[in-house]
Amino acid sequence: LMRDPTSGASARAEGLELHQRPRVVVEKMLNPDRMLDRRLSQAETRGIGWDAGLGGFIAAAITGAYAGAAVVWANYSSPRFRKAFGVSGKLAMVVTPAFFAFLLKSHLVVAYAIADNRKYIAPLSDQR
User: CA-CA distance, 28 to 22, in Å (whole number)?
Assistant: First the structure.
């Protein structure tokens, strides 16, 4: 990496900073300060659940729209596809990806809220 000449720091100061950075990262990993020292309130828990459900629904709707379009296109353009699958098989090709998109997105929202709840709760409490 090249040093940015406009940063104003000397090469020695930047080298020292690069040397100290791993220590700071390890220190933060060993002593995380992300967790709250109290339980989440009912409103905060409801807010996380609402965000997870809404995010999952949006992901499922988008995935379902794309999967549905792909199935309709395949059904229209391929006689082999039309004959190979019945209505329930074609419906399963749309519903299954949408269902898993909902599960994945809602799980990731909850996991993010658990992993760094200070960052997640602050915008939530500002909205309410």
Answer: 10
The whole-number pLDDT of residue 36 equals 67
In contact, 128 and 43? CB cutoff 8 Å: yes
Nearest to 89 by CA among 105, 121, 67: 67
Q: Which long-range contacts (CB under 8 A, 24 or more apart) does 22-29 make?
A: none
pTM: 0.66
Nearest to 40 by CA among 126, 104, 127, 124: 124
Best CA proximity match to 21, nearest among 10, 13, 11: 13
Integer Cα distance of 52 and 46 in angstroms: 10
Which segment of 105-109, 113-117, 119-123 scores lowest on mean pLDDT?
Answer: 119-123
| Residues in CB range of 118: below 8 A, 6 or more apart | 33, 34, 35, 36
